[in-house]
Records
---
Amino acid sequence: MKIAFVSTECVPYAKTGGLADVAGALPKALEKMGCEVKIFLPKYSSIDESTHGLRYNWAVGEMPIRVNGVVRSVHLEQSKLPGSNVEVNFIDCPHYFHRGRIYTNDIDEDERFILFSKGVIETLQRFGWAPDVIQCNDWQTGLIPLYIKDNYNWDRLFDNTATLFTIHNIGYQGRFSKSTLLAAEISGDLYYPDGPVEFEDSVSFMKTGIAFSDLINTVSNKYSHEILTEEYGAGLHTILRARKEDVYGILNGVDYTEWHPGVDRLLPFSYSKKDLSGKTKNKKFLLEHFNMPFDENVPLIGMISRLVQQKGFDIFAGALEDLLNLNVQFLILGSGEDRYESLFRIVSQRFPQKVGAYIGFNNELSHLIEAGADMFLMPSRYEPCGLNQIYSLKYGTVPIVRKTGGLADTVKDWDEEKHHGFDHGNGFSFYDYTSYALYSSVERAVNVFKHKDIWKKIQLNGMNLDFSWEKSAQKYMELYKMAKEKRE
Ligand code: ADP
Ligand code: GLC
């Protein structure tokens, strides 16, 4: 099976969130199963050519690509995904991608990803390589399914190429004014109220991806059902319901060569489920780093997140005063909206013994917090999959989550399971999106933490679970086959 995997983030090159982790891991798992996978990524200026061994592809040369009536010269740089044979293709167009940020609010944000989408297709043409499936990820790649079926439909190369549109987050839709139709060379016939491209008087890249792809999937089973509802569909539930038969959910996996306390190269102390003493040492190390007191009996709650509305920081802020009255400490790593960045700066200054905050992006620290914290809090309003709670399970860091999307699919509440006669709970969860519900579940966790034997049982229940990519990659293989059959 030949797969083109198109993404705007990929570890270790460019990352703002979980999409990068997925793009850096799923292709490797697919390759192990015998697929030929080529990743496509924009060549952002932040990607250092010598660090990552990028090479200019002379055979492809300079490709003239037209966006918004202007022809840009685009070329291809290539490398191999570390630890694999997966080819990574970087679409280089300095005008659009040398901006210091992966995503911008610039006026031509639409043009940046129009160029990327065309660049991917035109590179495939120059390779003369017809993928069985092009897997498109999130709105930035939403025009590709349309382009394959319409604008580039003249090229017989793609006659049997299917498209799979993977929704990692329906909250970000790529909506632009009607003038984008011209910039992207989308046929005006496709733009009419409630049509496949139009959404609330705008051009929606996400909707276009949903409308024209052969199959659609999201990154957990629960989220694949949630997005069909008005509450979670962010306005696109109607079109998703119309394509209900084609919507699947596949839970993301974890790259345990990166995220496992036994092999994690970024940890000062490794540990395993047989010997958790290294975890305590990491906690001490972490707290010292933040000039906070260490006490084995005071639970340390970690949070690593984009500081945005989706992640539940409004209900967290509402619960903060009560939470600080508990005998706990917090460590927060994140960046995003000003209001939350300043909230955590202020709280950490006012309660330096109880709250530590690092505002910014720091990969090393994210590993250290996963390892050193006793609990991990993710009170998300919605969560398509969520990776940190899955990492937390492996690190013996008990997750406390809101029961939604992938959080609901991976975290089993200890008390609730016990109520049903099971002792395989691996965390704590709450359903109501309120500060009170959040507070209550943290309070429950803090109480159980006092019972060391029970706590260890909960930790081990999580550490024993296996979310490696193989299982999920197998499911993707099935989807690819189905997508291909639809195209034949
Ligand atoms: P999302 O993709 O919605 O942001 P996920 O839980 O799927 O949420 O993935 C987030 C990923 O980004 C994780 O790998 C997490 O460790 C990482 N991450 C988020 N914020 C930061 C940060 N400030 N510094 C380092 N890593 C971060
Ligand atoms: C998105 C989602 C997150 C998911 C990630 C990777 O950014 O918000 O829940 O884990 O994509 O699929």
---
Amino acid sequence: MKASAPGFIRYALCVRSQAQLRHGCAAVLLFCLPVFALSNDPAGVGSARLGSSIPPHQPVHASNTVTASLRQLAAPQGFFIGAAVEAQTLRDDAGYRTVLAREFNMLVAGNAMKFGPLCPQPDQYDFTNADTIVAFAATNGMQVRGHTLVWHQQLPLWLEHGTQTPAQVKAILRKHIQTLVGRYRGRVAMWDVVNEAFDDNGPALRDSFWLKKLGPEYLAWAFQWAHEADPAAQLVYNDFGIEGMNAKSDAALALVTRLKAAGVPIHAVGMQMHITPEMPARLAENIARFRTAGFAVQFTEVDVQLPMPVQPTALAQQADIYRALLETAMTSGINTFVMWGFTDRHSWVPHFFKGKGAALPFDEQLQPKPAYTALHAVLTQAPSRR
Ligand code: XIL
């Protein structure tokens, strides 16, 4: 795979209003010959209480064969293959639940654990959505990644536009972290403690609400408070644009190394991996330097966006990227590969990137795309490579 410029993408939140750009995916369907015929609701969960009766190991049926799902291939290798999910979609979409439970052994809340959605009024938490996701994971034998404790986006309005003093903001953040991590202690295996602390293009720290109010010490405090609330949880620094070797990943490595040296409980680095069909520059080398510095590395939000309407050549190119990413992960000591969704039916990409979409391994009809076949092949072959 050719080395390229840093593979990160500046996602512009101002294009949120571009939801109408979501193209009908007729082209995707035409070119995505289903590799496996998925039954709509093989576990019969459509009428059952959410998450109550989905067997975790539902095989995928091809016409005459039965083959293992991604999680069935991953689990024996100690590997976690995951997806970000929305609670409302879990409630509403039986097909979504079925594929999710069958294919993945790790979940992350796409929005449900962010400060703003969780806590719309001071001291008024609504855990309904987060609980739905954690319960679904427990029922289906999946690990949960927590996302995210400290971020500059999706903050509660009462906080972002409030008049609290720095000391009050510090107390609010501490309480928030301890409330959330404490509630899911033992049930959420790992937390994105700090998300995107660097400028979009790095390497400076982002001049965020948290930096302005608390100064750079907020970073260490957040990890310490999370650790106090669940000493067994793996604590992660998560960002985009740190996948390849570049000035931003240099800065991230320096930051986490400094924190660790100061005794801060920080265990892993999450590379978000929102990319175009181009591999991040010197990805394996970059992973290796974080691991050498003592950090586990995870791919936390993988998606590979394509120009819409999607072309068959683009789907093949996308499959090559998914294949290369998973191969790189598995040969680099990574054991966590989480995508930001799993089906083009529910993806943030068309909403946030004008004219882009089709970023995930299942299409809008929940049929596997070439990218799925590529992931499946890598997991099938992995044991012989290790
Ligand atoms: C995105 C969600 O998918 C959207 O639904 C929401 O409107 C904005 O946030 N990096 C992250 C995620 O760490 O939290 C973001 O999730 C996608 C980029």
